[in-house]
Fold:
Amino acid sequence: MILYLARRLVGVAGVMLAICLVTFTIFYLLPADPAAAACGKTCTPERLAEVRHSMGLDEPLWRQFTDYLTGIFAGRELGEGPHALQCGFPCFGYSYEYSLPVWDLLTDRLPVSASLAFGAALMWLVLGLGTGIAAALRKGTRTDRTLMVGAVAAASLPVYFTAVMLIHGVVRVAGVLPYPEYAALTDDPLDWAANLLLPWTALALLYAAMYARQSRSSMIEAMAQPYIRTARAKGMPERAVVVKHGLRSGMTPVLTIFGMDLGGLLAGAVITESIFGIPGVGRLFFDALQRSDQPVILGVTLLAAFFIVAANLVVDILYAVVDPRVRY
Amino acid sequence: MSTAPTTAAAAAGDRAADRAGEPPLLRVRDLRVAFPTAAGPVRAVDGIDFTVRAGRTLGIVGESGSGKSVTSLAVLGLLRGAEVSGSVELAGRELRGLPDRELAKLRGRRMAMIFQDPMSSLHPFYTVGEQIAEAYRVHFGAGRRAARRRAVEMLGEVGIPEPARRAADHPHRFSGGMRQRVMIAMALACEPDLLIADEPTTALDVTVQAQILELIARIQAERGLGVVMITHDLGVVARVAHEVLVMYAGRPAEQAPVDELFADPAHPYTRGLLDSLPRLDDDPGVPLHTIPGSPPSLLAPGPGCAFAPRCFRAAEASGDVRARCEGTRPDLVPLRAGRLASCHLPLADGPSGRPSRRPSDRPAGGLPDPQDPTPAPEGTR
Amino acid sequence: MTVLRKGSGRPRSERAGAPADPEEEAGRSPWRLAWHAVRGDRGACAALVVVALLVFMAAAAPLLSALGGWSPTEFDKTAVDPYLGGLPKGPLGGISAEHWLGVEPVTGRDLFARVVHGGQVSLFISFAATAIVVVVGTAAGIAAGYFGGRVDTVLSRLMDLTMSFPSLIFMIAMMAVAQDVNRVLLMTGVIGIFGWPGIARVVRGETLSVKHREYVDAARAGGFGAWRIVTREILPNVSGPVIAYTTLLIPGMISTEAALSFLGVGVQPPTSSWGQMISEAVSYYETDPMYFVIPSAFLFLAVLAFTVLADTLRETLDPRGDRA
Structure:
C-alpha cells in the first residue's frame, strides 16, 4: 500500500512536471508578449527591453523553465536591483495586473470555486444518481423513457443558456432570489447559499443529466449480473438486493467520472463563473486572458492540472477500497 | 395445446402422493414460459410437468436452450419480463401468483438454488462469510454474530478448510471448486427442503466435479433434501438422479427412473443422446455418433413433434406416420411402468439395435453444449 | 476466412432459452447494423432527419443565404430602429418575409444567413476535430494494442498525460494567446488534440482482445505483414466501437466549439458560429429574445440530435458501452 502510494506519487510528480514543461513551452512559443502587457500602453522600445530583461524573458527557454520550477519549490527573486520583488515559496510568478503573487491570487479565489464545485456536485449527485437509478430499476417503462428523454435534453442544453434562463426566470420574473453576488461562507452561510443557488443549479443541471445517463446504464449492467440473481435466490428482499448488491457495483464506475469532473471544476468553471460574475479561479483565469496576464494563466493551468491528477489518484485509491479485487 | 400431459403427469404424481399420504415436495404442472421479443414470443418452456419428493433427486437433462435453466428459474419465481403460466406447488402450496415479497420469504428458506458459474454468481465486493450470513439474518432475524457463526459452520460443513479464517475472504481468493462449495453453503445455510442445482459442476474440473456431486449427495442423505439436478451431462445424471426428465426444445421428451432410462430409452431423442456418448469399447477410428441437425427455433414452433426433423424413427416411417409426427404434437403419456414419453413412434421395449449404455464410468461425456466446448476426454477414445 | 472474420467479430448473444434474433445471426457490417437500429427507433429516425437537415444546411450555406437574399455580413440599417437602441423593427426580432429569422440588433444583419453560415463553421470544426481525434486515436490504439511492449508503454503514458491536461482551460488559453492565425483551423486542431486518448483506450482494448483470435493468428502464420494484418484483420473488427465512439464524440465537439466561441476565444466576428452568436445575444435576451433563442435552438437541436443518434448506434455497435 505504502509502496503503491509512493509509486503513484512519483508518477503524479512526473505528470505534473511534464504538464508544466508542455504548458511553459507552448506559452513561450506563442507570439503573445507578456512584457508588452506588463509595460503598458505608453511603452518605449527601451523600456520594453528593460521589462523583458527584468522578467527574464530574454533568457533561453530552458533557463526560464528551471527558474520557474525553482521558484515553485524555493521561492525566488523576480527582477533585479531596487525593483526586485521577493516572491516566496511557492512562487508561481507575479501578476503585474494585480500586483500580487500568483499564489496569493489562487489561494484567494480557490474557496470561491470550491464553493461552486462542491455545492453543484452535491446537487447533481442527488439529482443525477436518483434519476438514473430510478430509471434503471424501471427499465423499459414509460417512466424510464420520460426520465431519459429529459436527461438527454438537459444534457444538450449549454450551461450558458441554462444560466441566462435561470437568471431571467428566477431573478427577473419571479424575483425570488437576488442577482447572484458572491458572499463568503464564513461571513454568512445563508447568504452564501442563496447567492450560489442559481450557479449551482445551472451547473448541476448539465452534470445531473450526464450522471443520470451514466448511472442508469451502469446500474442496469450491475442488476443484470448473476450475483444479483443469487441474492434474489437466497431470499433477500428486493430493497436489499438493489441497495446492497446492485448499488455497490453499479455506482463504482460513476466514482471514476465523479472524481474527474470534480477535479476539473475545482480549478474553476470558467463559463459559469463568467456568466454569474462569481470571483473564482475560472473568472480570474478569464480576466487574465483578456489582459495577457501570463503568470496567472500559467498558474491556473497548473492548478487545474494538479486537481485533475490528484482527483485521479484519490479515485484510484477509493477504487481499491470499494473493490477488494483491486490490488496494489 | 392439449391438457393431456397435465392429467397424465398429475395422475402419476397423485398416485405417488396417495402412497406418501401428503403432497410431494415440489410439483410442477404444465409450466410454460415465454419471453416476449420483437419477433414474437419465444417459448422457452412449453408445458413441463414433474414432481420431486423429499430425499429424491430429479435430473433434468437437455441441450442448451432446451429450457431446463428457465424451468428452474420459473420455479423460484426469478424470471423477470417473462410470461409464466402453469402451476408450481411447494409442499402443496401454490407459488404461482404469490407476491414477490412472499416468494422471497420462501426462496433460500424452503427452496434454494445453486448456479453454474460460482465466480459471477458471488458478489465480488463482499466476503463469502457476509454473503452466507446475510440470508440467514433475513430469514431467521438472527443477529450479526449468530449469522456469522452460522456462516463459519456452513463453510466447515461443505469442506472448506479453516472456515473461520476463510469466511473473511472475498470470492476471488477461492478456487472454482471452493467457490461452488461456498455457493452450496450459502444455499443450505437456512436449511431448505428443496435444492435446485443448475449445472453445478459444468464450470469445474472433472475431479472437482466429482467432489461437488459427492458433497451434494452427502448433504442430501443427511437432511433428506429434494434435489433438482439440471445438467447437460448424462454422466452426472447417471450418478446422482433417481428420476430423469429429458427436455427437448422446451418440451418434455421422456421421463423415467434413471436405470430404466439408460437401459431402455423410449424416445428417439433420448436414444440419440445415449448413442452419442463415447465408450471405452468404441473403435478408435470411428467418429463419435451425433444427432444430425440442430434444435429448432423456439420463436415459431411447428405444429408437430419438435424432434421430428432430426428423428431417425420419423425418417424411416411411412408417409402417414411421418405426417403425424410432423403435424401433431405428441403428448407425454405413460408408456410402460413408471415411464412417460411424448412420442408417436416410441422405441419398443427391450434392447434393439445398438446396445444402450450407461455412462457410469467417470469421466462421463456430455451432450453437445455450445457453452461447454470441452471435448470428450482422451481416455474414452 | 471472410466468413470466419465476420462471424467471430460479434459473438452471438446467447441467453438461456432465448435464441439470438435470427437477423443478428448473419454477419453484417457495422453500417448495416446501425442503419437497421436507426430504422427501428422513432426517436433515432427523427434525430437522423435533423442531422441530415443540419448537415445539408451547413453544406449548402452560401446557396441558402443567397436564397434568403442576404449575405451573413451584409448590414441592413432599415431593419433596425435607431430610436430603440438599434432593436429590430417588427415583432419577434424582425421576423418577416424579408428576413426569415429576423435580424441582429444594431447592425441589422440577417439572422437566417448568419445561423446557416454559423452552422457551417460549427459543424465543420466539430467534424474536422472529430476526424482528427478518430484517426489519431485509432492509430495510437491499434499501435499500442497490436505492438505492445515499449510502444504500448510510451503511448499509454502519453494517453495518461493528455488526459491529465485540464483540456478546457488549456484550449481557452491557447485560443486566447494565439493571434494572427486562421482561427477555424486553430480551433479544430486545439479541440482535436485533447480528444484522442479516449478513443485510443477503447481501440487498444479491442485490439488486445482481437489480436490473438484464430483468424489473426492464421494471417500471421500465413506470413502476412503487420500492416496487412492491422488493416485487413484488426481494423474491420474494431470498426464497430470506433463508429459508435465517433458519433458519441460529435455532440461533445459541437458543445466545445460553442463554448469556446461563447467565451470569445473561438471564431471572431464577422465570422459567425452558434456559440459566438449566443455570446453576442446574451445582453439582448430581454429586449430581443428571438436573437438569443434562435442560435440557442440550433445549437440545442444539433447536440440533441447527434446525442440521440449516438446512443442508438452505441447500443447496437458497442453493446458493452463502457464510457472510456
